[in-house]
Write a structure and sequence with these properties.
glycoprotein, transmembrane helix, alpha/beta, 10 helices, membrane, repeat, extended, single chain, Leu-rich_rpt
Length: 756
Amino acid sequence: MHCLAATMLVLLCCCCLFLATQQQQQQQLQPAAGGNRESPSCIPHERDALLAFKDGVTSDLGGVLSSWRRDGRHDEQDCCRWRGVRCSNRTGHVHELRLGGGGTFQPDLAGQISPSLLALDHLEHLDLSRNDLAGPTGRLPEFLGSLKNLKYLDLSGIPFYGGLPPQLGNLSRLQYLDLSNLYYGGMNSTDLSWLTHIPSIQYLNLNRVNLSTVADWPRVMNMLPSLRALHLSFCSLASANQSLPHLNLTYLEELDASLNSFHHPSNGDQLNMRSMTMDLKNLCNLEVLNLECTLLYGDVAELFRNLPRCSPNKLQELDLGSNHLTGMLPRWIGQFMSLVILNFNWNKITGSLPTSVGQFTGLQILDLSFNNLNGHVPYEIGKLSNLTYLDLNTNKLDGTITEEHFASARSLQYIDLSYNALKIEISSDWQPPSTLKYVSFASCQMGPLFPGWLQWNVSITYLDISSAAIADRIPQRFSDAFSNVWFMNISNNQLNGTLPADMGSMSLLELYLSSNKLTGQIPTLPPNIHTLDLSNNFLSGPLPSATRSAKLRQLSLFSNRLTGHIPESFCKYQQLVVLDLSNNFLEGEPPLCLGFVYGLEGHVLSYGTIQRIVETSMTSIHLSWKGQELYYGSIQRIVETGRIPSGVQLDTLYAGYPSMYIGNIGLCGHPLQNNCSSERHAPKQGGLGRTEEGSGIPFFYLGLGCGFVVGIWIAFGVLLFKRNWRIACFRFSDKLYDKVYVLVATWARARQTQTD
């Protein structure tokens, strides 16, 4: 009984002690008399410093600093509650200032960076990016180098110009530094040695800062052992003067030196660049390597041998597009299994595409366009279930593309195999496993039937199957299947039949159906279309009305069988810049309002029997109709004839502007269907046709001769009737003759003396 009483007494004492402790803690947490808060208020002199910074801001379009007030309630005066300000919960000192702007072309803040920030002794994070805070001097303030506790400094996008202040080297605790410019040519530096005083820096971004005179930049960067991300894009970097036997950047994860000029002179600079890439083997943490547009030469297989191949391999993004790399892709390229982006476009790579690409299980982007790859496209590419972007256009690939190439490509959205010798053999009933949006098979053999499998992809927005040997009718479900397409090019095929009557329901912005065998009338056009090319067909009937498609900017209907006249509704084409209705059977007078339509002035208008003007230098319109020519200003006409030169550049230009050759009937050769051996590429065009243009050459020489004769007689006539001019002319000729005679005689006597 006594033991039980003692136990109860001990429990009672413990409970009392626990309750007393809890009450004491609550009293400590409750605000005392005088208004103290859980978190201490900001320091008064730091609040004054922030308000002085606000005074230096002349424009605050986003109202970022609207909460920064000196008056108002007590909580409104607490700078720790102000937008963009972060304070220490323990001391109340301002630790962070996050005022990064949200827009590029309309920054939130404008003005200058006030030196009052120096009063923020405990500031560790300063973000003023994407604002117009360059101030009246436009220079990056040197006093920022006195904020000794800074760990994070982001001044990117501020339009500074001039040199980088070396005082930034005093920020010895800095871990993040972003001084990148939005535009090249603002800031520059001749010496980066101050960076070596910041050994803790992990992120460095100097994109678009002119570093063309900094020759030792590799040595400086190699002295930053903690660096994880290095961005030096578009800095005008040249090859290093010294080689680097070993890279200390073992923690480096991102390296972006794109858009620089690692040129290839023959005096050893290439060796310096190669020594740099050889050291990349030791960068086992490297995830991103971007050397795009660096004029880099060398063998692509050697470059892969110099990449890090640690286990596990972490390299995810490899971008070396737009360089001068040669050679063949190595067969063991699949060892880089962690790759997500592989871009080697615009190089000179040869050979076939290795089958080991099927090992890129995580690959999302594969771009090998504009090279000299040959052979077949391996079936293993269909195993890439994460691939979203595939671009192999403008190579020398051949063989057949079947359903097996897309067997597991469930994520594919972008595919471009154009300008290869490929044959596409896919069943019309086959439904792709992915949702395609961008499809381009230009100059691939897809015919003779229309590729019906494309109709299952209602999500397609860009479709180019021009010059694909399609000799079929337009499918019945055409308007529904391609209702979301905004760009469509099916030109240079053998499409026959009529255009869909319900085209007006489509979302087309650009439609190219030139050089086919389409018949019938032109239906109602899509409401938002701005480029329509139906030239070189057999279309008949009247011109389409302009009631719905008022946004039209280019309309090419030449070389058809259209009849009637231009309707007055064409005056609604306020944005029209190209109108070509030549080689039709139109009649009547054209509406004179076309000569005054806003947007037509200074551009091309061709009508009736006159051929389309392809290249112009003009200030207004040239309108020709039934032998009568009306001028609104002046133009210069340039007509192209002959064989189209072969080359990647012209093919690329044609891919972007399929209508570039339209109207030049005298042109022949690839990519047009006109055979240069035939004579049908130079038909007669009547009184103003191409064959008549040659008759202008004799008239040119006749006019030249007449001008010469008239000029000579004008000169002699002046001397004949102007006695003073005649005397002066003959005196001048006599003096000139005497000077020449004396000069020759002196030279002859000197030669004779030397001989004697």
